[in-house]
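Problem 12. The chain below contains 204 residues. Write out its predicted structure in token notation.
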Amino acid sequence: MFQREGQIEPLGINGEGLFKFLQVLDSDQQHAGVVKNISMRLRLLDWYVDLQVPSADTSHTNSIEISDRYLSVESGTLNQVSSNEGFLFLLFYFSLFSTQLTPAFFAIDNVDASLNPKLCAHLVSELATLARDNGKQAILTTHNPATLDGLDLNDDDQRLFVISRNEEGETRIKRIQQKEGRASTMKLSAAFIDGYLGGLPKNF
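Solution.
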């Protein structure tokens, strides 16, 4: 993610170019505050405090500095190599959604990868806000029931579809909607696990 440059700019599909992209955002007056906003949203992680992006003019390193509240001052900071994979995914997602420099329409497969269930729900809620604020339309796929709890089906801009195949192997798409005038007391995650939404295997 930080070591390779991609042919797709500003960000590759595997996160290539992310470090350079953060440097551009941090140094461009037109995008002042974007990195700070990304940093604020990373505080979904209870250990995270802040990050510093070295200037392209003053540094030849490809490392960001990450402050961990559990580390003493003497221990210093982390870099992206010593941080966990979940942090890097969040950094990539928030960077992707936070600026007009990235595409207006894209898809993320398995957005729940490397994230704990409770974090997944908060992530989806944060991404919905960023998508609205920055004119993004995104398709997210997930197999994690908890991810669904971050959706607000009363907001027509947030839509849930269940994808499955019938006995002939044909793809079927069903939209899940909140019934008008009825407030559901069941979480979407529970509805999915209990089989009310569909999309679960039927052979066991």
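Discussion. Strands lie at 48-52, 65-68, 105-108, 137-140, 160-165, 171-176. Students who got a different answer should revisit the alignment rule from Section 12.3.
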